[in-house]
TrEMBL record, chain A:
Keyword tRNA processing: no
Lineage, top ranks: Bacteria, Bacillati, Actinomycetota, Actinomycetes, Streptosporangiales
Source taxon at top rank: Bacteria
Protein's name in the database: ABC transporter ATP-binding protein
Protein family: Belongs to the ABC transporter superfamily.
A GO biological process held by the record: L-amino acid transport
Organism: Planotetraspora thailandica
Keyword Glycoprotein: no
UniProtKB/TrEMBL annotation, chain B:
BP-aspect Gene Ontology terms: amino acid transport
Keyword flag Disulfide bond: no
Keyword line: Amino-acid transport, Cell membrane, Membrane, Transmembrane, Transmembrane helix, Transport
Molecular function as annotated in GO: transmembrane transporter activity
Family: Belongs to the binding-protein-dependent transport system permease family. LivHM subfamily.
Cellular localisation: Cell membrane
Protein name, as recorded: Branched-chain amino acid ABC transporter permease
Protein's organism: Planotetraspora thailandica
UniProtKB/TrEMBL annotation, chain C:
Keywords: Cell membrane, Membrane, Transmembrane, Transmembrane helix
Membrane topology reported for the UniProt record: Multi-pass membrane protein
GO molecular function: branched-chain amino acid transmembrane transporter activity
Gene Ontology CC terms, in alphabetical order: plasma membrane
TM region positions: 21-39, 45-64, 95-115, 122-140, 171-190, 221-245, 251-283, 295-314
UniProt-listed InterPro entries: ABC_transp_permease, LivM-like
Protein name in UniProt: Branched-chain amino acid ABC transporter permease
Length: 235, 293, 337
């Protein structure tokens, strides 16, 4: 478990500024959801945390500034499941999972984790040797999450897990989040368009609007405000 | 010369092409670039080996030292020069390797001059009988054996080690790999380093067959490119089989089809290769990417 | 001026001053026209050869830059055009017949290669085109009766008419310059036509191009054929310039050098084709003068230096400079208006 804090973060691509003075806090062991319309800067926030986008301001992991290179951030225990899942299509399911644990030296524990994840996601055991690209969208999302967990992260960043999935599958993924948080000792920051679903499992929520934090509070508070829902969440 | 000898000689030349082709595949796998300087890098490595040998170092040790040096030099080339072009226009990257080719050729001529040098074979003289009074040289058999060892070693490295998995992950998807904490930059350096080392081996294998000269690898590079593409640019086994095919067909055509002769023999495997590519555009052994929409 | 269209974009500052643009064009034409009258034969040959290779690089640009294919075969088409005109001249046929023969032959071979090759992508296509020079060189040596074998062919074509009073190098300069100007103008027109847009569509996204009703294979074949025709025409101009052709001219190295010239000049730029050709022709002379022994090394280093400083080529870099200057001048003038 880890605490993530952003203080006055500005980030963007080239001349296009996407984030303007974003500050937020993701508490130890919580599930926080980052909501907002398309282009509000949700993905950019995650990419800034994991070093894929340059930023100014402070991003602190357990009180210490995160490094600028993605691999260095990952080594601090931050797992980022990007939009589109980032599974490596050309590699087998098993190779993908093992790639998630390449930095670990505790081999016995890696094997144990692999067993646990295969129990949790039986399809990963059934299709261990097939190319990851051949999995369905939902299966790939599970592979991506399982692979992230293989690295025993303390902070899990999930970018739009629902993208391209059937509603039922999406629900399955979200319902799983609290369980994963408890069993794998995680702090979770999940970006989502589907606010209803995300608010149901999250403890906290942050709403971004045009690259600025518009609202922050407990999930119940945000979910309870009809006006907020209408204004920022579009329903 | 009997047929068995001809085929084995073809396999031996094919093994040299295969070794350089494997270097090309390594580079293409890691950085997505076709390195036109691969042959020229092998040439300078071979000159280094020759210099060590000339100074009294045993030939095997000289070759090993040159290979080790090439590993470092290849990695540096990636870090200092190629990295700036990995994400840009592919043509720019190709042309940079052409610039590297020309520059290394210049350096070789500058240091060692253009006079041909005799490079010793690392294999013993003589050979074994092949029936009909012919002999198959140890050099021929040794070249094939070295290639087999290289292929097995690379296969083991990539399929059965953590380093190999990391390398394959980075080759397939650098950004995802970085998010998993893999040191992408260092792995790309390693890809180029390994390729340079394998290329150096190819240079040391071919030099005793010809003379050591700055242009020694030019034609080998053409064959190696052909083999690498025919193999799909991503399959070691496919590349080796393609290179052997090229080596054997070239040798047999040059010997037995009188019109072809020594100057046109290169055309035969290339034309056959084109016909194959037309029916299997992804190469004979290259795997099609599975895609889901 | 066709040469200027990519340097001075219609939306750039210079386009707002049409007189300035016409003046620049006129000045360029005058300089190019007077050049051979006052310069040495050697300098004339350098410019002539630059224009020759610029045409070959332009052909490559149609394929690589416009349509996004790879080719290592341009030297073979160059050779076909050159041998076409030289062999005809050798038999005593008129030069226009040789020109037609060389260019058409290059186009036919290009089309024959392209029809099957258009099904391939990327390096597989590069591979097939690599075969062309590898086969063409020994073939040219073999067909000794026609091609003069390894010795090559010496010919006398496009002699300066008596009334002009021009020396051979001057006349050849004008002939090549006129030919180059013609095909550059053609390419510029083509680029702006719906063909240019179709080529762009094929390069950017084949699936999307198909969806938009662009027949991808047809345009790939067309690009390849055009590229070959330009290569062949460049070969004809080459024979006009040097009155000689040998198998050594069409080796793979020329193909690679032309690709390098294209990258150095910059893709999709007519000016870039000329600059890339100038690099290929002029830089080896300069480095040779600096140090004969290390000329090749210096050439390689120059190539690397240009790519490192201007990874997208010289013409786009120049374009940016011009636009910055024009932009600054535009801003400086604006308050006064």
């Amino acid at each position: 478990m880890s605490t993530l804090e952003l203080h006055g973060v500005h980030a963007g691509y080239g001349k296009a500024q996407v984030l303007h003075d974003v500050s937020l806090r993701v508490g130890d062991g919580s599930i926080t959801t980052l909501l907002g319309a398309n282009g509000a800067g949700k993905t950019t926030t995650l990419r800034a945390v994991s070093g894929l986008v340059r930023f100014t301001g402070q991003i602190l992991l357990d009180g210490r500034q995160v490094p600028a290179a993605p691999d260095a951030v990952a080594r601090l225990g931050v797992a980022h499941v990007p939009q589109g899942r980032g599974t490596i299509g050309r590699l087998s399911v098993d190779d993908n999972l093992h790639a998630g644990a390449l930095l670990r030296r505790d081999r016995a524990q890696v094997r144990a984790d692999l067993r646990r994840l295969r129990e949790l996601f039986p399809v990963l055991a059934e299709r261990a040797r097939s190319q990851a690209a051949g999995l369905s969208g939902g299966e790939q999302q599970m592979l991506a999450i399982a692979r992230a967990l293989m690295g025993r992260p303390s902070l899990l960043l999930l970018d739009e897990p629902s993208l391209g999935l059937a509603p039922l599958v999406t629900k399955e993924v979200f319902v799983l989040l609290p369980r994963l948080r408890d069993e794998w000792a995680l702090t979770v920051l999940v970006v989502e368009q589907n606010a209803d679903l995300a608010l149901r499992v999250a403890d906290h929520a942050v709403v971004l609007e045009s690259g600025r934090v518009a609202l922050a509070g407990t999930a119940a508070e945000i979910a309870g405000h009809d006006e907020i829902r209408r204004a920022y969440l579009g329903n | 010369m009997n047929l068995v000898q001809q085929i084995l000689d073809g396999l031996s030349s094919g093994s040299v092409y295969a070794t350089l082709a494997l270097a090309l595949v390594l580079v293409h796998q890691s950085t997505g670039i076709v390195n036109f300087a691969q042959g020229q890098m092998a040439v300078i490595s071979t000159y280094v080996a020759w210099t060590l040998y000339d100074a009294g170092v045993p030939v095997w040790a000289a070759i090993v030292a040159a290979i080790a040096g090439s590993l470092v030099a290849g990695a540096l080339a990636e870090r200092l020069l190629i990295r700036r072009f990995e994400k840009g226009e592919p043509l720019a990257a190709i042309v940079v390797t052409v610039g590297l080719l020309i520059s290394i050729n210049g350096v070789v001529s500058l240091i060692w001059g253009t006079v041909l040098k005799q490079f010793p074979s690392a294999f013993p003289r003589g050979g074994v009988g092949s029936g009909n009074g012919g002999t198959i040289g140890f050099g021929t058999l040794g070249t094939i054996a070295v290639l087999l060892v290289v292929v097995l070693a690379l296969g083991w490295l990539f399929r059965h080690t953590r380093l190999g998995l990391a390398f394959r992950a980075v080759a397939a998807n650098p950004e995802s790999s970085a998010l998993l904490g893999l040191p992408v930059g260092r792995l790309l350096m390693l890809g180029w380093g390994l390729a340079a080392a394998v290329g150096a081996l190819a240079g040391c294998l071919v030099a005793p067959k010809l003379y050591l000269a700055p242009e020694m690898m030019d034609s080998v590079l053409t064959y190696a490119l052909a083999a690498a593409v025919l193999g799909g640019l991503n399959s070691a086994i496919g590349t080796v089989l393609a290179a052997w095919f090229i080596g054997v067909v070239e040798n047999l055509a040059g010997t037995y089809i009188s019109f072809v002769g020594g100057d046109m023999k290169i055309a035969v495997p290339l034309v056959l290769m084109i016909l194959i590519l037309l029916f299997k555009p992804e190469g004979v052994f290259g795997h099609k990417e599975v895609r889901r929409v | 001026m066709s040469l200027m269209i990519d340097l001075v974009k219609p939306d750039g500052g210079a386009a707002r001053r049409p007189y300035g643009r016409m003046l620049t064009g006129a000045a360029l034409v005058i300089v190019l026209a007077v050049f051979p009258l006052v310069m040495s034969p050697f300098a004339n040959l350098q410019v002539t050869l630059t224009l020759v290779y610029a045409v070959a690089i332009l052909g490559l640009d149609i394929l690589v830059g416009w349509t996004g294919q790879v080719s290592l075969g341009q030297s073979a088409f160059f050779g076909i055009g050159a041998y076409g005109v030289a062999v005809c001249a050798d038999r005593g046929w008129p030069v226009w017949a040789g020109l037609l023969f060389g260019v058409v032959l290059a186009g036919v071979v290009g089309c024959l290669v392209a029809v099957p090759a258009a099904r391939l992508r990327g390096y597989a296509l590069g591979m097939i085109t690599l075969t062309l020079p590898v086969v063409a060189v020994p073939l040219a040596k073999r067909l000794e009766v026609v091609t003069g074998g390894a010795q090559g062919l010496n010919v006398t074509i496009a002699e300066a008419p008596e009334w002009t009073g021009l020396a051979a190098d001057q006349w050849h300069y004008y002939v090549v310059a006129a030919g180059a100007a013609l095909v550059f103008a053609l390419a510029a027109a083509l680029r702006r036509s719906h063909f240019g847009r179709a080529f762009d569509a094929v390069r950017v996204d084949e699936a999307l191009a198909t969806a938009q009703g662009v027949h991808v294979t047809r345009y790939k074949v067309l690009a390849f054929t055009l590229s070959a025709v330009y290569g062949g025409f460049a070969g004809v101009l080459y024979v006009v310039a040097v009155q000689f052709i040998s198998p050594e001219t069409l080796i793979l190295t020329l193909s690679i050098s032309l690709l390098a010239g294209l990258a150095i000049g910059g893709l999709r730029s007519l000016l870039g084709c000329v600059l890339g050709a100038a690099f290929y022709v002029v830089v080896p002379n300069v480095t040779g003068e600096v140090s004969a022994g290390q000329s090749y090394l210096l050439y390689g280093v120059c190539l690397l230096a240009v790519m490192l400083l201007m990874p997208r080529g010289v013409a786009p870099a120049l374009d940016r400079v011009v636009r910055n200057v024009a932009g600054r001048r535009g801003r400086a003038v604006a308050p006064g208006d």
